[in-house]
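for the writeup, i need someone to sanity check this before i put it in the appendix. the sequnce is what the collaborator sent (i think, or maybe the updated version? ugh). structure was predicted straight from it, no edits. if anything looks off just tell me and ill rerun, i have time this weekend
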Amino acid sequence: MSYHDHTDKRFFRNLRLGAPAAVEAFQALDSAVFENPASEIPAKYTELIAVAVALTTQCPYCLEAHAKAANTAGATEAELAETVMIASALRAGGGLTHGWMAMKFFQGAEATSGEAEATGDSPTVPAGASF
């Protein structure tokens, strides 16, 4: 048995049978987001955003679907590469900032941001950082 297999989609039937209203609502949401002709965001960018989210949530099925859809919508390989690196930087930034929380919990600190600023302990965030 493997964790991710292209044939896993066959289990969608079980979800549809077990929770038909929820599955129908999910499909309606998905259609409203990805098949909306009145969307302000062009399809190419919608799909690149979806790729970035799929990378951070690590959903292999979403990654496959949206990488292919981005290609169909006209994204270039360079745009996909930049999307991958943006998602990677944000994912790494999340690890760093959660590291701050780990240090706080390790030290038993419950300081508010005002207390940290008053003591000079507030972190220096690099210019241009996205966190």
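Residues 13-119 form a domain with the AhpD-like fold (CATH 1.20.1290.10). The chain is about 65% helix and 0% strand.
thx in advance!!
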